[in-house]
């Protein structure tokens, strides 16, 4: 009996640490969920993509929130950004330096950098960052990453919103040869955080096949 008591006593610090980490993660998840973006981000989106309308702007901002949630899950592992529209609004958010720093401290415990990263090497060859983003996004949305029935939000957004300079993915690679082949990601383009992102400015041109849809 005494041995059991001392074994439980020895395990207590570990249990307390695990409980503390769980509560910290819950606080960070809640902070990302409850994040209120600056109004000027919608204005910037309206200037960059005037065809979006209010609903389209809200969808892009929700895509950024989704990316932050995936970044929290990924920890310090590189996570690619699969949407050009979301990447642009992320870049704009960083310009609100104090607000972004405060958000990062509460959501990640560190500054989430927006750093250059290579795009997918080809339409059938993905970098690890985009593969990781694909796996995490699929898991979060209940999609089988190897046999997807649809694209996760971040991978569908640019095509759905007709983003002319966007990153376009397709489940049907033969019908949409101009898009990135999603079925090869799990076996990917984007920009990544260090958690890196496009080394292109928002005015740069990207994939021109988004008008073809998915």
First-to-last CA distance = 64 Å
Contiguous low-pLDDT stretches (5 residues minimum) are: 188-192, 196-214
Average pLDDT over all residues: 79
Q: If helices are DSSP runs of H or I spanning 4 or more residues, what is the number of helices?
A: 7
Q: Strand order, biggest sheet? A: 1-5-2
The protein's oligomeric status is single chain
**Rg, nearest Å:** 19 Å
The major β-sheet equals: 3 strands, antiparallel
Order of helices and strands: HHHEHHEHHEEE
What fraction, in percent, of the residue positions are helical? Answer: 40-55%
Total domains, how many?
Answer: 1
Task: Chart the SSEs and their pairings.
Elements: H1 2-33, H2 39-48, H3 53-74, E1 79-81, H4 84-94, H5 97-107, E2 114-115, H6 128-140, H7 153-160, E3 169-170, E4 180-181, E5 191-193
Parallel strand pairs: 3-4
Antiparallel strand pairs: 1-5, 2-5
Helix pairs in contact: 1-3, 2-3, 2-4, 3-4, 3-6
3D structure, described in words:
It is a single chain. By secondary structure, this protein is mainly α. It has one domain. The chain has helices at residues 2-33, 39-48, 53-74, 84-94, 97-107, 128-140, 153-160; strands spanning 79-81, 114-115, 169-170, 180-181, 191-193. Helix 2 packs across helix 3 and helix 3 (53-74) packs across helix 6 (128-140). The radius of gyration is 19 Å and the shape is flat. Residues 204-214 have a biased composition (Low complexity).
């Amino acid at each position: 009996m005494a041995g059991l008591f001392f074994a439980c006593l020895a395990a207590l610090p570990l249990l307390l640490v695990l409980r503390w980490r769980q509560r910290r993660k819950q606080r960070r998840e809640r902070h990302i969920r409850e994040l209120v973006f600056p109004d000027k981000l919608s204005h910037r989106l309206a200037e960059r993509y005037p065809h979006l309308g209010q609903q389209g702007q809200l969808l892009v901002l929700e895509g950024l929130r989704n990316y932050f949630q995936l970044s929290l899950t990924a920890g310090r592992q590189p996570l690619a950004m699969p949407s050009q529209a979301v990447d642009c609004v992320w870049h704009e958010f960083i310009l609100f330096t104090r607000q972004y720093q405060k958000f990062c401290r509460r959501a990640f415990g560190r500054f989430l950098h927006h750093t250059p990263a290579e795009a997918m090497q080809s339409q059938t060859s993905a970098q690890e960052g985009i593969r990781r983003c694909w796996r995490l996004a699929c898991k979060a949305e209940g999609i089988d990453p190897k046999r997807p029935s649809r694209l996760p939000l971040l991978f569908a957004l640019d095509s759905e919103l007709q983003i002319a300079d966007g990153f376009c993915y397709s489940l049907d690679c033969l019908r949409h040869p101009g898009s990135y082949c999603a079925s090869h990601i799990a076996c990917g383009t984007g920009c990544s955080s260090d958690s890196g992102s496009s080394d292109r400015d928002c005015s740069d041109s990207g994939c021109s096949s988004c008008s073809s849809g998915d």
